[in-house]
Amino acid sequence: MSEKNNLTVKDYIKFIIPSLLGVFLLMVPIKVNGEITLIVAVWADFIEDNIGSLMPYIAMILMFISFFGALITRLFQPVFIDKRAALRDLFDVGPIALLTRTLGFLFVILVVFQIGPEAIWSEDTGTNILDLVTTLIAIFLFAGYVLPLLLDFGLLELFGIIMKKIMRPIFTLPGRSSIDSLVSWLGDGTIGVMLTNKQYEEGYYTKREAAVIGTTFSLVSIDFTIVVLLRLDLEHMFIPYYGTIILAGLAAAIIMPRIPPLSKKADTLYEHAVVQEAEPIENNQSLWKRGMREAALRAKEITSFKPVVKGGTHNVLMMWLEVVPVVMAVGTIATMIAEFTPIFHWIGMPFIPLLELLQIPEATEAAQTVVVGFADMFLPAILGSGIETEMTRFIIACLSVTQLIYLSEVGALLLGSKLPINMKDLVIIFLLRTLITLPIIALIAHLLY
Fold this sequence. Notes:
Low-confidence stretches: none
Largest sheet: 2 strands, antiparallel
Structural class: mainly alpha
Distance between the termini: 53 Å
Radius of gyration: 22 Å
Mean pLDDT: 85
Strand order of the largest sheet: 1-2
Order of helices and strands: HHEEHHHHHHHHHHHHHHHHHHHHHH
Strand content: under 5%
C-alpha cells in the first residue's frame, strides 16, 4: 500500500509523543505535597489561588455572551454569525437551549450580587452551583486544549482497529462503532452522539445499532469525571474510580443491547440513508501493526499545530458557552428542589432498601442522589458532597457516570437527533443502567474500603 510505504519514523513519533502526553496530562496521578492528585486538579487549584475572586465575574461574563449571542441570533439571524460555522455552532440554538441560557445568566447575576430570593443564592443552592461552575471553567480551559492530544494524533485509530474483532460478538455492534465509543469515552459523550447520528443518517448503522451506541457509550468525558472527583474530594482515587467506571460500564454495554427496549429496535437502516459497503478485512497483518499504521497515518495528517489549537479553542468555547449555563440553570433549580422540597427524597425512597441490602453507609442520604442524575450528571456529586463516608461518595461518583442518561445534555441531544430514541426509552434505560451498575460499583467499593 502506497500510504504505508510513505510512513516514516517521524510519523510514528508524531503519533506516540502527543498521545502519551495527553494520557499523562489527563489520566496519570501525580504526588504533590505528599498527596495523590491529577495535573488538571493542580491547574484548577492554581487558578483558584491566583484569580479565584475574579472567577464568579468571569462566569457571569461568559453566561452573558452565551445568552446574548443566542438571543440576537434567534431574533435577527445576523449575517456575520450566519456565515461563520463556528459562530453558528455556538449561538444558533433552539428555544429550550435559549431558555436554559437565559435562566443560567439570570441565576448567576442573582448569586454574584446576592439579590432576589435567598432560595436562589443561598450557600446550599446557587452559591454552591457557582463554585462548581468556576471550577468547570478552569478545567474546561485546560482540557479543551489537552483533549486534541488524545483525539487527533491517532490514539483512537489504534484502539479502534484493535477493538474491531470484539465489538460484534460482545456488544452486537459493527467494528467501526469502536471509534464512536472511544470518542465518547476519551473525548465527550455529546461528540459521540453527534458522530453516531451522522453515521446513522449516512447508512453505516441500523436503527438498533445507532440506538445502542448512542445510549451505551456516550459517557461523559474524562475531564467531566475529574470534576466529579474534585467535588467529592476523591481525586486521590482516580485510578480505581475510572477502573470501576470501565468495569461497570462494560457490564452495562454487554447486557443492555440484549434486553428491551434496545433489543426491540428494528435492524433496518434510516429511511433516507444510502446502503454502505461493508468494511474491507485485511488478514495479512496483525491488528496491532494495522492499528499502529492507521494511527501514524492519522498523525501524518497533522501538518501544523494551528488547526489543533483552533479546534481546542472551539472546544473550550463550546464547553464554556453551552455547558456552563446548563449547569448553572439546571443545578440551581435542582438544588432548590432538593433543599426546599422533599421531591428527590420521595423519588429516592424506593432505592433505600437496595442501598441497605448492598451495605452502603448513609443509605438514606445517598438514595436521592441515585435518581437526581437523570436531570444532570453533576447533581449527585453536588447533593452527595455533604456525605461523610468516603465509600458512599465513591459509589455516588461512579454511579453518576455509569447511569449515562442525563437530560441536561446527552439526553437532550439524543431526543433532538434522528436516532430512534424517545423519552420513555431514556427513562427505562436510565433505571436499567442504575440497577445493572450499582451492585458492581458497590462490590468494588467494598473491596477498596
